[in-house]
Structure formats: structure tokens, C-alpha cells
Amino acid sequence: FPGLADVSISQDIPVEGEITVPVGSHSPDDDYSTLDEPVKDTIMRDLKAVGKKFVHVMYPRKSSALLRDWDLWGPLVLCVSLALMLQGGSADSKDDGGPQFAEVFVIIWFGAVVITLNSKLLGGTISFFQSLCVLGYCVMPLTVAMLVCRLVLLAGAGTVSFIIRLIVVGAMFAWSTLASTAFLADSQPPNRKALVVYPIFLFYFVISWMILTFTPQ
Amino acid sequence: MATADDLKFQEFDDAANLLAANPDATTISIDEPVEIPKNQHSRLQEPGREEDDELLGTDDSDKTELLAGQKKSAPFWTFEYYQTFFDVDTYQVLDRIKGSVFPVPGKNFVRLYIRSNPDLYGPFWICATLVFTIAVSGNLSNFFIHLGKPTYHYVPEFRKVSIAATTIYAYAWLVPLALWGFLMWRNSKVMNIVSYSFLEIVCVYGYSLFIYIPTAMLWIIPQKVVRWVLMVFSLCLSGSVLVMTFWPAVRDDNRRIAVATVATILLLHALLAVGCLAYFFDAPELEISAPIIPAHNTTTKV
């Protein structure tokens, strides 16, 4: 501070006053209020947060809400619903059918963990759970695609339905990849962006493949 | 001659390249003794060894070892230690992939591309891509082969993904481990000029598997001849990368052991390719299938 170099306080000026640090809204009453509130309020607050994140994924904008207040409820719900919808596939012999429930679960969660570790090892600045949160929430377009596929398959399983499913799954796959890239790419060093985006592409490609090859018995 | 270019700061890679290309050049570097005595020593070597310098870059082996020692200084239980294995940029990964697909005869992949900066990104993600490519292509090819048949019901064959993953990751990690152990053992008996660290061997194996990714995609074509031509072609490319890497490491050894080592490397590589083709891709059936003559029925009629 160059301007203060020659400031001196003479002895006869009393230095007095009050030094108060403005206390944030952290009075003891506030601590109890979230404990005392009705359970409905707590649940609604969490549900609203989850819902807000779903909206953010639907319309991917550069907002930090998804990153800042991460939660893993949304990814869990999406993963479980996707795994459930992938059940009931054709299984003549146990070995040739579609993925089991546990396999879908493991692929999604283990894949997300590996991608997060990969981006952190390459020098990314995003935190572990934030990245898991983003990757999990961006599975939502693919869950919607799975729902559409099951509905289309109710109508029939011919070539036309396959083409419809292909287009829907392809579009949702592109949406997922672009959404998660939009959230995650900024936290990477600039000359390694492609190295981080490619595993995300592979991850959503595998999930899309599982959705597209689902054939009911 | 100190031109303006020489006075500019140059990347270490360029300096090592220049040095490998021109072993007689006088170099002064801050962090190690002057290299003139070493260059004189290299001139005294037999002319047949000069190709080693090209192949190995032995002139910069001191520098590379020093660099390797400086890199991995973090203790192995910290996150930073593992970050040193991912210290690559996009263009470096692409260069290494290119080097594995277009092997230049006489150039060693490790010395030319890896240069004491082995990364785990390439091997891990190339193996992951290969696993899913083989599973998806196998599934697609089976679908197209059996498409017209009325009794065929499509199955996703998801179980094969885990089998593919086990096979390919085991190959890409256990074979380098065995090879590294073997080379270390031979190094203790015979003084070899070249020795590779475990990670460099993993790196070479990982990047050499890259050529199988487009090959697996092309294996969808249900023609036996096409598939075998593709297999031989990709085997030659990736096999040559491996051979050119490991031949200098065993050349000084007993001739039989050297040849046996290189032959084993190639054999395992071929086994992987043939095994994947046989297991994941059904045989394309012949266009003209002769009707099966039920010879045994005539005997039972009696």
C-alpha cells in the first residue's frame, strides 16, 4: 500500500470506537429453525433443488447452480429408473440378454467415477462430487429416450419403430453429451479439453447403445 | 554458430531431437555435465552401433533418466503422484496414436514419442474404447449375418462386454508386467544398453492396440477374406511397433533368447487378435449352402 507509507498517527488523537464484525444471519434461532421446520418443508426444499437442476439440464446454460449445490438424489433416481426400464429384455439364455440391473448401476456409477478421476488427474479444477452430480443429471435426456423407446416398442418392433428409436436415442445422446460438456469443459486446462470430453462421449455412447439395443421378449 | 534461433528458449524435446540427429554437436546444459566426453566415446564405438543412436537416442538417455527422476518425486500415496502419469496434452496423445499407426522403420516408439513421459491416459482409454468397439461391432456383425433368418431373435449379448473387458485389460497390463519382469531378469545377467520402465512398456502396449479399433469396426463386414486381410494388416502394423521397441532391448542377449522373446510377444499379440475375431464375431455363412443329405435316415427306415 504505497499511499499509506507516510501515514503516522500522532499520540494526541484518541483512537477509539467500536469494532464490531457484522454477524451474519447466524443467530442461534436460525440454527434451530431448520431443525424445527416441518418435514414437508425440508423435503420440498430438496425436491425443488432437484427439480431446478433437471430444468438446468433441459436447457443447458452456463449456470453455476448445478455445480455449486450438488446433490446426488437426481442421479440416483435417474439411474434406478433407467435400470428398471432396461429390465424385461430378451433373455433366451442368461448369457445373451441385455444388461442386468446391477450391471446398469455399476456402469453408470463406476463410469462416472472413472471419468471424474480422469478429469481430476488431467488437472481439472472441479470437485469430485460436483462432477458426479453433473454427469448423473445429464443422464436425464437418455432416460427420457428410454421411456420413449419403451412406448414405441409397445406399438410394434418393426423397421419403422427402429428408425424412430434410432433418431430419438441419437438426439438424446447428443443432448446429454453437449449438456455435460457445457458444464464440465470450463474447468479443464485448455489444451486438454478433448482428452476430457472423449470419455464423456464414450460413457453416454455406451448408455445409448444399451437403450437402443433393448428388445422386449 | 549461434543464430537467433539458437539463443531462443527451445523446448527440451527439440533439443533432444537435435542431439539425437547430430551426436557430434557440442552441448552445454545447466543440469548435467558437458556432453563432449560422451560424444567422443560414441565415436569410438563400432559403426554398426551408430544405428543404436538413431534407434535409441542413447545420447539423451542421461537427460531422459534425469528427467524421469525429477518427475516422480511425490510420494505414492498422494494424488499428485498419479497426476504425473496424466501429464499429457491433446496433441501429445494424438502424436503417440499416430506414431503407433504409422510406424517409421528404424524409429523406436518409446524414444521418439514417449521420451520419459509415459502416460496412463492412452493405454486406459484405448483399452476401454477397444472393449466397447469389439462388443458393439461383434453384436452388429452377428445381427447383420443372421438378419434374414426367420428363427433369429436379436439379443444384445451384453455378457460379452465383461468378457472383452477382462481379456483386453488383462492383456494390456499383465503381459507388460511379465515382459518387464523378464527384461529385468535378463538385465541382471546381460548388460543391455536399453531398459524400459514398467510404465513405458504399458504405454507401448496400450498405444499399439489402437489399430485394432478401426479394424474391429471394419470386421462388421461379413466376408471371411476381408476379415483375415484386415487382421493380418493390423497385426503387422502393431506388431512392428512392438518389435521395433523391444528388439534393441534383447538384441545384446543370447541370440536364441532374443528371438524367442520377440516371437512370444508377436505370438501373444496375434493370439489376442485371433481370439477376439473368433469369439465375438460369428463366422459369416457361405452364400451357397449345400443341403445336408440325411444319410442316416435311410438306414433307420429299415
From TrEMBL, chain A:
GO cellular component, one term: Golgi membrane
Cellular localization per UniProt: Golgi apparatus membrane; Membrane
Keyword Cell membrane: no
Keywords associated with the record: Membrane, Transmembrane, Transmembrane helix
Membrane topology per record: Multi-pass membrane protein
Residue intervals of the Yip1 domain: 57-210
GO BP term (any one): endoplasmic reticulum to Golgi vesicle-mediated transport
Top-level taxon: Eukaryota
Transmembrane segments: 70-89, 101-122, 134-156, 162-184, 196-215
Family membership: Belongs to the YIP1 family.
Protein known as: Protein YIPF
Source species taxonomy: Eukaryota, Metazoa, Chordata, Craniata, Vertebrata
UniProtKB/TrEMBL annotation, chain B:
GO annotation, cellular component aspect: Golgi membrane
Major localization listed first in the record, in broad terms: Golgi
Keyword Membrane assigned: yes
Acidic residues: compositionally biased ranges: 49-59
Positions of the UniProt region annotated as Disordered: 29-61
GO terms (BP aspect): vesicle-mediated transport
Keywords on record: Membrane, Transmembrane, Transmembrane helix
Membrane-spanning segments: 120-141, 161-185, 197-222, 228-250, 257-281
Chain ranges of the Yip1 domain: 101-273
Molecular function terms from GO: small GTPase binding
Location in or out of the cell: Golgi apparatus membrane; Golgi apparatus, cis-Golgi network membrane
InterPro entries reported for this sequence: Yip1_dom, Yip5/YIPF1/YIPF2
Keyword field contains DNA repair: no
Protein topology in the membrane: Multi-pass membrane protein
PANTHER family reported in the protein's UniProt record: PROTEIN YIPF, PROTEIN YIPF1
Family classification: Belongs to the YIP1 family.
Descriptive protein name: Protein YIPF
